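Key result, reporting period 2: structure in, sequence out.
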C-alpha cells in the first residue's frame, strides 16, 4: 500500500512536468510546420545506440543550407548547418543499411530565422507524445492520491 501511495504522489508531481515538456515540443513542431521552409539535407552519418535497458535510439547527422536574410542574399551564399536528429526506427531502416546511410538527401523543415530549429520530414522522433502521457499521469496520480490517502469513515 505504501508503494502505491508513493507512485500516486510521483505521478501527481511528475505528470505536469512531463506534460509541459510535451506541450513545448508540440508548440515547437507546430511553429516549424506552419512557418518553416523545406530544404534538402545531406546525411553525413547515422548510428543506432542501445540503452542500458535495451531501448534503441536512432540518430542521423545532416548538413543542410541555412538561409541568410533576404537583404543579404545577393552578397552571401547559404551557410551550411549541421545537426544531429533523433529519428524513428522505421525511417532509419528505410534510409540505411546497418549504420551506413544509403540515400543522398533527406527533407529537412526548418525556421529561416532559427536554422537550428528543424526536423526531418517524415522521420523525426519527437516528444509530442509526452503531453497526453503527462496529463494522464497527473489525473491518475490525483485520483490515486485521493483514494489512497482518504481516511476511512469511523463507525
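The corresponding designed sequence is given below.
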Amino acid at each position: 500500500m505504501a508503494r502505491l501511495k508513493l507512485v500516486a504522489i510521483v505521478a501527481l508531481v511528475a505528470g505536469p512536468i512531463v506534460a509541459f515538456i510535451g506541450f513545448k515540443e508540440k508548440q515547437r513542431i507546430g511553429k516549424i510546420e506552419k512557418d518553416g521552409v523545406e530544404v534538402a539535407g545531406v546525411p553525413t552519418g547515422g548510428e543506432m545506440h542501445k540503452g542500458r535497458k535495451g531501448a534503441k535510439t536512432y540518430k542521423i547527422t545532416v548538413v543542410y543550407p541555412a538561409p541568410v536574410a533576404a537583404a543579404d542574399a545577393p552578397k552571401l551564399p547559404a551557410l551550411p548547418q549541421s545537426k544531429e536528429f533523433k529519428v524513428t526506427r522505421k525511417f532509419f531502416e528505410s534510409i540505411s543499411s546497418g549504420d551506413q546511410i544509403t540515400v543522398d538527401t533527406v527533407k529537412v523543415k526548418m525556421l529561416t530565422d532559427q536554422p537550428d530549429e528543424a526536423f526531418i520530414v517524415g522521420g523525426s522522433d519527437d516528444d509530442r507524445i509526452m503531453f497526453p502521457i503527462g496529463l494522464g499521469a497527473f489525473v491518475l496520480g490525483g485520483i490515486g492520491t485521493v483514494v489512497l490517502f482518504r481516511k476511512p469513515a469511523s463507525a
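The chain has one domain: 2-149. Helices lie at 2-35, 89-95, 130-149. This case is discussed further under Risks and Mitigation.
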